Amino acid sequence: MTRVAVNGVTGQMGGAVIEAATDSEVVVGFATSDTDGVDGVPVVHPAEAAAALREYDVDVVVDFAVPEGALTVAEACVEVGVSIVVGTTGFDEDGIGRLKDASEEVPLLKATNFSQGIQVLQRLISEAVGTLEDYDLELMETHHNRKVDAPSGTASSILDVIQEERDVEPVYGREGHAPREDDEIGVFARRAGDIRGEHELVLAGNDEVLSLSHRAEDRGVFAAGALDAAAWLVGRDAGWYAFGDVVDA
Ligand SMILES: NC(=O)C1=CN([C@@H]2O[C@H](COP(=O)(O)OP(=O)(O)OC[C@H]3O[C@@H](n4cnc5c(N)ncnc54)[C@H](O)[C@@H]3O)[C@@H](O)[C@H]2O)C=CC1
Ligand SMILES: O=C(O)C1=N[C@H](C(=O)O)C[C@H](O)C1
After folding, report:
1. Record-annotated residues binding NADP(+) (predicted)?
2. ipTM of the complex model
């Protein structure tokens, strides 16, 4: 069985990964929380990650934490030579640069969303935006009230997909006198309750509206995708991998 360490183990996604790990074994977790165990998994501070990766003979880290924590653990993976699946969102440019550096030393797979449905949605969006060239585009995402980064990592990835097809300028929310420019795309983030994750792109023009959307109904979908990615990643060459590589395999 693949020996997994979970970064952010005391969080919402950490719990979902422990629950979903039936074909792999979660042998240790990292978190800054003041606890030494969760669901029978020992919890170690991220500052001690390198020693724990050696002690627990970890094959791969599955990370759902915060950017600074993900970077600390990614750098521990480099020190020990362990693969890492990065699910944390909200990295700035410097953080992405540090992850890229890590991927030169160990296999690193980063995805802003580990659901297969979002992979397909991104492909559909690419086709729709490329085909309906003159249609207005508006992007919406909705998440639970504890989410700290906005827009979501998935919305940012969808924006990247759109910008490969069309030269659009994101406008993050609108307020006051804000007439729409032809080349803009409105991007909206809503936070409420325990909504697991909803994303929608609206394309409007020519007296019609096309709406492409996805809704995650349980965190288990992300946890299962990340564990599939982890099993796929172990034993590969150092490099930067995407969840699409796993889905297409
Ligand atoms: N790629 C994907 O499919 C998905 C990504 N996410 C992302 O995963 C991340 C975590 O989400 P949740 O579990 O909902 O958050 P959460 O707030 O419930 O959990 C965060 C965890 O990180 C830990 N933490 C805080 N500082 C840390 C540090 N310096 N080092 C290591 N751990 C640290 C906390 O103790 C906690 O265990 C977010 O960035 C979220 O956007 C969430 C769901 C799916
Ligand atoms: O924080 C979350 O919950 C989620 N985060 C990811 C994101 O930022 O896109 C993926 C998913 O939507 C859930």
Report:
1. 54
2. 0.98
